[in-house]
Amino acid sequence: MSKKNIKIEVQGSEITVINTNEQDYISLTDIAKHKTDDTSAVIANWMRNRNTIEFLGIWETLYNPDFKPLEFEGFRNKAGLNAFTLSPQKWVNTTNAKGFIVKAGRYGGTYAHKDIAFKFASWISVEFELYIIKEFQRLKEEEKKLVGWSAKRELAKINYRIHTDAIKENLIPQNLSKIQISFVYANEADILNMALFGKTAKQWKDENPNEKGNMRDYANISQLVCLANLENLNAVFINDGLPQNKRLLKLNQIAISQMKILLQDKSTNLLSNINEEVDE
Q1: Residue 210 and residue 202: Cα distance in Å, rounded?
Q2: Which residues contact 216 (CB under 8 A, 6 or more apart)?
Q3: CA 240 to CA 19: how far, in whole Å?
């Protein structure tokens, strides 16, 4: 069960979102703070409402095969009575509900599945609910972009193995030391860096001394797609015995062409043209 805390800002309020079992849960405690500091009372008042109980029961019936319907009926029959009280923890313990997560401790609070959280937010304020939905959707779009970036980064790593195998078989003489072999690999990696980014790894590091990792960790998805292609092509060029300076020229030309297509931009200034730096 994976949990990851993320905060979204809604009208000046921070709302925590956690992901557990691949489902998003939003902090009702944070949402309630938009109305009052007595968050437990606000949540309890919402759960006393008969419409709320019916909504929670239907949601659990749809998504939770372990939900206890008889216990739910007991709550529904009492809902609305003056003496009736209900908390998220009592609801979970009695009905085996999974729509709520109650966390104890200093950084605890009550979390609800996004469907339930949006319903609670609408009870607090319809306007506030709309802003929460808007920010939550923005968060999901950002996560999709990150997943795409990670997939392309992994593809580049897989193709890097093909690239290094070609170097090992064709460019590394026998009896070289580990330091010499590392230099060969780094030198070839910089051929790709120069072709795509217009600078070596060292040049990038010198320009960005406070950044962790390397320039490829900061590449966008289009650059990673192009890099994966260049690694494959360079492996082919190495196997064909093409000299390094000619490989660099060809790879740079291919990178410029591919990036124009990927970015749908006709500008010739997307990449550094390094033709003048390399002897033909």
Answers
A1: 13
A2: 153, 156, 224, 227
A3: 49
Q: CB-based contacts of 95: which residues, under 8 Å, 6+ apart? A: 57, 60, 67, 68, 71, 72, 75
Gap between the Cα atoms of 24 and 111, Å rounded: 9
- Please tell me whether residue 263 adopts helix, strand or coil conformation: helix
At 84 the three-state DSSP class reads: coil
For residues 168-193, average pLDDT: 65
Burial of 104 (0-12, 13-18, 19+ CB in 10 A): exposed
Select from 130, 124, 59, 141 the least CA-distant residue to 95: 59
Positive or negative, the CA dihedral 117, 118, 120, 121 is positive
Tokens representing residue 48 in the block: 């006393």
pLDDT tens digits, 28-44? 999 998 877 788 899 99
Give domain limits for the chain.
5-124, 143-277
Residues 248 and 251: their CA atoms lie apart, in Å, by 5
